[in-house]
Every structure is written in structure tokens, then in C-alpha cells.
Amino acid sequence: MQKKKKKAGKPTPPRPSTVRYICLGCEKQEEIPYQVVRDFDKQDITRDLSYPPQFRCESCGGIMHPHYYKGVHGFEYRISDVLEAKGPR
Ligand SMILES: [Zn+2]
Q: Domain extents for the chain?
């Protein structure tokens, strides 16, 4: 007799569980739980949506920007956007 194997559901696609934030001041990197960033993003609806949810660097007090993050409002944020905007001067 053949035993039918139960399929244990689909393999979960690799989903980032954290968002890497990089300090614009001292370049310190920190992994922030995706859920925390999302909650922050959802709560903070008064802000300019062209900016991602930002955190303060504990080391230098600078602004931390996500390396890559797609917001709940459909905006995508990349660290390269900020670095380009700053530009070499
Ligand atoms: Zn810093």
C-alpha cells in the first residue's frame, strides 16, 4: 500500500524579516525588525511620504536611512537615493 504524503504547504518565499538601516552620519548599520518599521510607517501618516520612516542613530544622533525598504504606501526607498541627492561636493 502506498502512503500518501501530505504536502506541508508551499515553501515560504524568502522574505526579509529585518530592514537594514544605515546611519547617514557615521555609517553605522542596524537591523530593524521589518514589523517595527512597518508599524512606524503606518502610524506616521503625517510625514512626507517621499521620506522613509527614519530612526535616530544611537551613536551619533544622526538620521538612519533604510538600505532598501518598500513602504506600506507603495513607495520604495533606497539609500542610494539619499546619497545621490547629497552628492559629492
Ligand atoms: Zn551614527
A: 18-86
